[in-house]
Write a structure and sequence with these properties.
Elements (H helix, E strand, L loop, with lengths): L4 H13 L23 E4 L2 E4 L6 E4 L2 E8 L7 E7 L5 E7 L8 H10 L7 H13 L5 E5 L3 E5 L2 E6 L2 E3 L6 E3 L15 H7 L8 H12 L2 H4 L5 E6 L6 H12 L12 E2 L4 H9 L5 E5 L6 H13 L21 E6 L3 H7 L6 H6 E5 L18 H12 L5 H36 L6 H22 L9 H17 L5 H21 E3 L30 E10 L2 E10 L1 H7 L5 H10 L3 E2 L8 E3 L7 E6 L12
Helix pairs in contact: 5-7, 5-14, 5-15, 7-12, 8-9, 9-10, 13-14, 14-15, 16-18
Length: 631
């Protein structure tokens, strides 16, 4: 190739880069300048153009700058722009100014994803950055990082995608670098939702609890409560997903999908759940089918959801990115619960997980699965089908009316209203609490009280046509069902310690607890001849966890012989793995499952046959039922 050909090729490449359809040229009429940009950028019916010495460069389709945005602390500046997509649908988007740093790829992705046509040549890309980088507006708006309550100008505002409820003269918009699914759409009239959806909850404790929980989500912040959740656990085809759809219909859905468009799946990762939670902050977060989540991530996911704070991450430049925060009320469903999912991964279930995601048996006990009342339908399946049908056309109106009512009460007297909420919540919690309840049970009672309160307030606001006591009765029935399955009003760790120790001995008794007394080959073959001697066994103790001895116990006028187990410190630590050891041992001793020494210590100083003196935990016969005593 000759050197004379190179300049020609460069000219051809430059011509290709600047090429544009001949029909797209800037019109000399109806030209509008963006504020402060002078004569270089023009806007007409075809879009925005950048003047150059040769010919204008088409930058993008028509787009308006509505305002400059910033957070309430004066940082996080951005641009609020407006444009129409190819279907003519109007879009508003907050572009963070920090996204203009670098090559601006993120900005182009945001605009293109929203439906704005963009020039693709390098000069057009550079011109877009120049346009947005120099843009100024005399109008101001507040940018917030997520859905939910925010304090703007001294008052509480509830931000939603595209609008805010309770906002003043200055607009409030959500700044998001990626487009989240907007499931807060509305369809139908509130009156129809009340009559055709809300009424189906009457007489159905699980349905009423789910719908009341949907209304309770915005109350968490107002009463100073942390995030929480309710998990409906039960076999398939019992109506669990129908209950979630009823709750979803309060908040929204999607065109064509109905309330199911608001439903989210457990099939995700703990990291992805952060964005989902932020998109549902102070709103209901419905998660269907817990069996789909990776069992290795469930424990972390539960803490992430209810903890309300995402991981601290670095940006591309190495700087710390803003931390995601949220408050959510989760409504979950699945055939299994947290304990079973953790067991799949070989993990112990911590009490905190069971308190954060409260499991309620989906079977209401009326023979119709989750339902007690079928409202004229022939079966639970037919009622479920009806719920799916009505929630597909009536959704989203109840939450908007609810938020407007809350915003009105807050604007009138925020302090008084929030004090009233706390007072009523505490009164409902006291009604739920059984005698002797510990802090864990009290925490769950407080959550159920918020749910009951939300249902009562929605009735007072005219959004629910329920009897006055419907929400409180539903909360009470479900709370009692939880207590019944939990088996104690004490600390969950105490129950877990008892269960784990019993299972450990059931699993390892003969193999890991060395015989204390005669050698195995000296033990009798016929236990009926000498009841004071244990039955003959032939095995070798491996990885010893303690000792066992054949001892008598008085029962009335007679004597019963049984094995008594003595656990070493190592064996007891293994049995109580995953729990706080000292707390668990103290609880087992206090409840009579361990026999203390004369000084009240949980272990005793003993000398097994042929062994040095050592401290052993003597496990009381009380730990086992009659059927389990002779291990």
């Amino acid at each position: 190739m000759s050197t004379d050909d190179k300049p020609g090729k460069r000219r051809i490449k430059a011509a290709i880069a600047e090429a544009k359809p001949a029909s797209i040229t800037p019109s000399s009429s109806n030209v509008v300048e963006w504020h402060g940009l002078g004569r270089f950028f023009k806007v007409d019916a075809d879009g925005i153009w950048r003047d150059t010495e040769k010919s204008p460069i088409w930058v993008c389709g028509p787009m308006r700058l509505l305002a400059e945005t910033r957070s309430s602390d004066g940082n996080g500046w951005g641009l609020l722009v407006e444009f129409r997509d190819s279907d003519g649908k109007q879009k508003q988007l907050v572009i963070p100014r920090r996204a203009l740093a670098g090559d601006g790829a993120m900005v182009r992705e945001m605009l293109a994803d929203g439906g704005l046509r963009l020039g693709v040549s390098p000069p057009a890309r550079q011109a877009l950055l120049e346009l947005l980088g120099q843009a100024r507006s005399p109008t101001r708006a507040t940018a917030v990082p997520r859905v939910g309550w925010h304090r703007v100008g001294g008052k509480l505002v509830f931000a939603l995608p595209g609008h805010a409820i309770g906002a003043g003269d200055e607009g409030v918009f959500i700044e998001q670098e990626t487009r989240p699914p907007n499931a807060f759409a509305q369809h139908g009239e509130l009156a129809d939702w009340k009559a055709k959806v809300g009424q189906l909850c009457i007489g159905n404790s699980r349905l009423a609890l789910g719908v009341a929980a949907a209304f309770a989500a915005p109350l968490l912040y107002l009463v100073g409560a942390e995030g929480g959740g309710v998990h409906f656990r039960g076999s398939s085809r019992t109506g669990k997903t129908s209950a979630l759809l009823m709750a979803c219909s309060v908040w929204g859905g999607e065109a064509g999908g109905g309330a199911a468009g608001y439903l989210r799946s457990w099939k995700t990762t703990a990291n992805a759940l952060e964005g989902t939670a932020a998109g549902h902050s102070d709103a209901l977060l419905p998660l269907d089918e817990i069996g789909l989540v990776d069992s290795r991530e469930l424990g972390e996911a539960a803490y992430v959801l209810m903890g309300g704070r995402g991981k601290i991450r670095a940006s591309r430049s190495g700087m710390v990115r803003p931390e995601l925060r949220w408050r959510v009320l989760v409504l979950s469903s699945g055939e299994v619960g947290v304990v079973e999912k953790n067991a799949e991964a070989g993990k112990q279930t911590r009490a905190g997980q069971l308190i954060r995601l409260v499991e309620v048996n989906a079977d209401a006990g009326a023979g119709h699965g989750l339902f007690e009342q079928l409202h004229g339908h022939a079966s639970g399946a037919a009622f479920s089908d009806h719920i799916r049908a009505v929630t597909s056309v009536h959704f989203g109106t109840a939450a908007m009316a609810w938020l407007a009512w809350l915003a009105q009460r807050l604007a009138a007297d925020e302090g008084g209203f929030r004090a009233e909420l706390a007072r009523r919540r505490d009164a409902l919690a006291r009604q739920l609490l059984p005698p002797g309840a510990t802090g864990q049970v009290t925490s769950v009672a407080s959550l159920f009280a918020v749910v009951a309160l939300a249902g009562e307030l929605a009735v007072e606001a005219g959004i629910l046509d329920w009897p006055d006591d419907e929400a409180a009765d539903a909360a009470r029935q479900c709370f009692e069902a939880w207590i019944g399955e939990r088996g104690t009003v004490g600390a969950q760790e105490d129950q877990q310690a008892e269960t784990q120790l019993r299972r450990f001995i059931q699993l390892h008794g003969p193999g890991r607890f060395q015989l204390w007394g005669r050698a195995p080959d000296e033990v009798q073959d016929d236990a009926d001849t000498r009841p004071d001697q244990p039955p003959h066994e032939r095995f070798r103790t491996v990885n010893r966890a303690g000792f066992r001895r054949w001892e008598p116990v008085q029962e009335g006028k007679g004597t019963r012989w049984r094995w008594v187990y003595y656990a070493t410190s190592t064996g007891m630590n293994e049995a109580l793995a995953g729990l706080q050891f000292r707390q668990s041992v103290a609880s087992l001793t206090e409840r009579g499952f361990l026999v203390s020494d004369q000084n009240g210590r949980s272990s005793q100083s003993l000398r097994p046959t042929g062994e040095p003196k050592q401290r052993l935990y003597v496990i009381a016969d009380k730990l086992f039922s009659e059927d389990e005593a002779d291990l």
